[in-house]
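Exam review. A common question shows you a sequence with its structure tokens and asks you to describe the fold in words. Practice with the pair below. Do the first one on your own.
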Amino acid sequence: TRAIQSRIDPEDNDYSFLATGEDYNPYLQQVRDGTLPMGLTTGSRLLDKHFLFKEGNLVMINGTDNVGKSVFVWWLLMIAAMYHGWRGIIFSSENTLGSFMRKMIQFYWGKNLYGQFAMNQKEYDIAKTFVEKHFTLIKAQEDLYNYKDILNMVKKAVKKEKYNYCLLDPYNSLKIDLSGYSKLSTHEYHYEAMSEIKAFGQKNKFGWFVNMHAYTAAARAKDGEKKYPIPPGKADTEGGQKFPNKADDFATVHRLVGHPSDYMITDFHIRKIKETDTGGRVTPIDSPVRFEMY
């Protein structure tokens, strides 16, 4: 049997683990004064009713493959950079570094890099400088990393510069490290991973955006006409309900890829807002916030 270690010594006189008024009085005073900081705008009055940028939150997003989860979240992060100056560390293992940079530079102006109506050299230089200032990329294709690797990369990066968040895109691509001596199951491993990631965020007011795949059965589920895939729910996340359990905010990105006219419309379902006092609320089941890509 393995002894469970504890950081608490029951014999000493250290009671610093007990909360006092100093720990919660400022929050209570802000509530009473009406000065509790609200979440930050997304630039969309409709989306702001349901989702806002909140410092230090763990935001999880699920969806089936090829619906544009990554691109939609990248666009949200560009909005956070342009409106609020947020800077992020990007781990995007299923996309090349070049494709990320290209998409973000194009988002900046709403123009392509090449072809008709492409941005000119001056516009390109301005956009590229902005993207490089606000987004730092991890070379995710060079090796398989586990969550501890990412956490330690973040810890090193924030010592050097100020960052607001890290994007894990997707979490499911991280290596699962269970040594021969470990007593953890993969279920317990992921719980521990999410707990560590969230604890670091809460302690340092550092946010996380975590993209998650949906499991296979959810990808097979079709609508009443058995024609188009339906959006997955929280519990349809690959790995189960433990992930939305840990999230501060949880959303689903969905798109009817094979639809003749609606293929460019992205549905953004807000499934969970833990702290509604600072703004946001769940979207009605059949009424997501809809975005059209031009």
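Now try the second one, then compare your answer with the model answer below.
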Amino acid sequence: NGSELTEIRLISNDGRTASGYFSDPDTMINAIRPYVNDFSTYFVFNKLNPDVYGRPQRDKIMLRPKNTSTDGDILCRDAVFLDIDSVRASGVNATEEQLNAAKKKANEVYRFLKDQGFYTPIVVCSGSGVHLYLKCALLANEENDKLIKRFTLAMDMLFSDETVKVDSVTHNRCRLSRVPGYYNRKGSNADAERPQRLCSFVKIPDEWRVNDKDYFKKVADMYPEEVRPTRENNYSVEKFDLDSFIEKHNIPVTHKVTVADGTRYHLEHCLFNSEHRGRDAILFRHNNGAIAYFCYHNSCSNNDWRKVRLMYEPDAYSRSAYVPQPRFG
């Protein structure tokens, strides 16, 4: 949209930063052109407060700017951004094998989102991974900040593995993303196995439709809540021994994956429908002790960790399982 204001942020491998605010695409392209060989090109994709257009870098690129966009400058969220990236050393580009792994994972994420009811996202190849833009219309407030953070954490929980991660830190309002049509200048271009690649569009839907907030909430609610003292856990936050539970009840775990916020246990089959096999079902233990269960089939969408626990230990949450603690004084 030619009338939309955005900030362009340029970042070089040696740490230099430049910035400019633009509302006209031609002005923006001409201003960026002298920098594209040495800088990676990013933009702010959420709606900016028009007041920032009054900053010194209006309609031009300024090196070492005093002010750039912050979360407080965002009026509303236009999109939720998912960054699906290969796991590799920092400051380098992906190999072809790593990029292909990210693309394969992006296809899994794409299919999952469509199964959950989301409209078709914009898909971009960043050069070393894949970006998905889910259109939304959310106010810039604390409630929605928490929602989108839990949404990205849930996506990380469900899909990150040893070779590809779904980045869980892309939830802030003023998130930067690569501009399609420009090269990803991260890393050296002298390494033929890790070249600097063009950031480019893969898929643009005919109509980029707004996703209802409830769809983001549905996925966010898959992420386990922090463990809090309740009568059900004898007012304790002591971590549940999931490994012992798995061993005791012969739950068929094929392998474990450690991700940023915890450990994912891949199951041989869904615990509620043995026909759901392969990598269809997981248990997830958060670092704070919270536990989640998930099967990727829609027919199992209502099955959670509480139901798993009750399947094997029917009195786990009953009053009889509660042992009153002595009172003093």
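Model answer, second protein: Helices lie at 25-32, 96-115, 142-159, 213-220, 242-248, 305-312. The first helix runs from residue 25 to 32. Full marks require stating both points clearly.
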